[in-house]
Amino acid sequence: MESSFIKKSIAAFLGFAIGDAFGATTEFMTKKEIEVKYGKLKSIVGGGWLHLKPGKVTDDTEMSIALARSIVDNKSFSQKIVADYFLKWMQSKPVDIGNTIRFSLINYMKKSKYEADYDESSAGNGALMRSVPVCIYAKGDVDVLKEIALKQAHITHNNKLSDLAVINYCETLNILLTGGSKIQALEKVSKFINEHKIFSFSRYKGENSGYIVDTYKAIMHFYFEGVSFKDTMIETVNNGGDSDTIGALVGALCGATYELNSIPKKWINKLDKNVYKEIMELTVSLCNLRVNIF
Ligand SMILES: [Mg+2]
User: Which keywords appear in this protein's UniProt record, sorted alphabetically (predicted)?
Assistant: First the structure.
């Protein structure tokens, strides 16, 4: 694999984990509450409703690592094996887990069904938050990317709005990972919004919930408004709401755009050492593995 793709992939996955660790502090807080408590939060301090140590990540990064690990260990993508890794992760008593994810994985445990039934109400961001490793593994092949992005998504979330956001986010990140510009990314996003107006963020009013439409608007608003990794992440996290997931997904786009040198060294050093090591190792492996889907 081209070295520029590998470099951008490392920055994207690390940016993702850093966004998660940074954003966990302000998760479920309003913008006003954050202002009162922190003025403006500018460093990774942990805490939050999960009482994390600084640099610890949450379910977003842990599930993305589990997904990457399932591909690397088995040298292939298999929906069932990914579901097995998610289940193993759930059984390890993670610090946080979304309701739809818990419900789907319990269902898998009971009925051995590793694809969730279509559900109009499963419109949370829990599938979208696991998109980064599949973008890396697909290595620019958009057909492969769409197939595995949806397969991994449907293990827990089988919903039209979730699918739409997953595909567009993955295609956008893919443009950046393969050397495309922010302008090219914006063209992809604009075309998508023209076809699916519900996702429009041109009049963004601070929506920040875990509802996939709100999450998508927040991600794209902060990513396209920002001009650097650091400032974009600070603005994103200080907007509160589902700030770990939104922060993580913005962090991946920013990592792919501004690359590793733009990520503050302090933030990289704060990130949980094991998570850092795993992301480095898994990303290189995902980049070097030939795609194999079964
Ligand atoms: Mg989380």
Answer: Glycosidase, Hydrolase, Magnesium, Metal-binding
From residue 285, alpha-carbon distances to 54, 74, 133, 139, 209 in Å are: 28, 11, 11, 12, 33
Which amino acids are annotated as binding site, given as ranges?
Answer: 58-60, 242, 244-245
Tell how far the Cα of 168 is from the centroid of ligand 1, in angstroms.
21
Tell me the pLDDT tens digit for each residue of 102-144.
Answer: 999 999 999 999 999 999 999 999 999 999 999 999 999 999 9
3-state class (DSSP) for residue 154: helix
* Span from the CA of 47 to the centroid of ligand 1 (angstroms): 13
Q: Which residues, in sequence order, are bridge partners of residue 293? A: 77
The reported pTM is: 0.98
122 φ, ψ (degrees, to nearest 5): -85, 55
**Tens-digit pLDDT profile for residues 11-46:** 999 999 999 999 999 999 999 999 999 999 999 999
